[in-house]
Protein: Chromosome partitioning protein ParA
Amino acid sequence: MSETIRLAAFIDKGGTGKTTATAHLGVALAREGLDVLLVDLAGKQGDLAKTFGVWGEYRELIDAGDAWPNVTTVFQDEWAAIAEKLGEAAVDDLVIETGEGVDLIPAHPGLDSLDADLGNIDDAAERYSRLETFLDEYIDPRGYDAVLLDLPGLTNNVSYSGLWAAKHVLAPVEMGPFEAEQADQLREDLTQMVEAFDVEVDLAMVLPNKVDTRTKLAEEYLEAFREEYPEAIAPEYIPYSQDIRNAVDGGETAFALEEPSTTAEDARDAFEADARALVDRLGGA
Structure:
């Protein structure tokens, strides 16, 4: 693969399964043989780390004051000096192995103030490019094939930074009128970002998530999304599965289930198909 795939999971709405989709697509890419890094910028609650069952251990480091450097450190003016002083250990200390084939930079309570901290930077290019610089200079040399960013479920300086860095957006949506409106708004937001900052950001995949095709309404919305986003729509929708929710609550993805239900198996197959489509769309080998 010539370049690292970067993808930011984002839509200005919570509860669409953004974190679950990030985790499962990451594992699906790893099952395809890619080296994958996930970065949790979605909030201090650490949901990505919880999904892989590693939050408790990292939380102990946070409480002990030992979670430094962390994901917020890379946005600070001092990061370059820290990285120079610590060498490779600076990034080593950021990254956690999950046990499911993907690496993770977990969330940190410092994310609470990061939006305001970035807002204090007057120059927009400087404000939004810090994450991109970190990925370019410190993550890409580590040889990851794919970096997936889980962004906040609202439009703020952190999510703009993620969009700027990734250049490609994954938008998980549920089947409903409000989700359709949010997907339309996302498309407008990306257009405005391109015009305002001269940065190309594209909607790489609209991912219908938690779809219950037993209802006629869900089928109708699914077809509407296919018509509205013919090039961006994922090849496979992700069916609703209580098994996935139970797995995540238990600290693992559906790929780790030894006896998955039929819906969980269908969801795993769909995530794998959509992961392959992402590689094709984003220029991977």
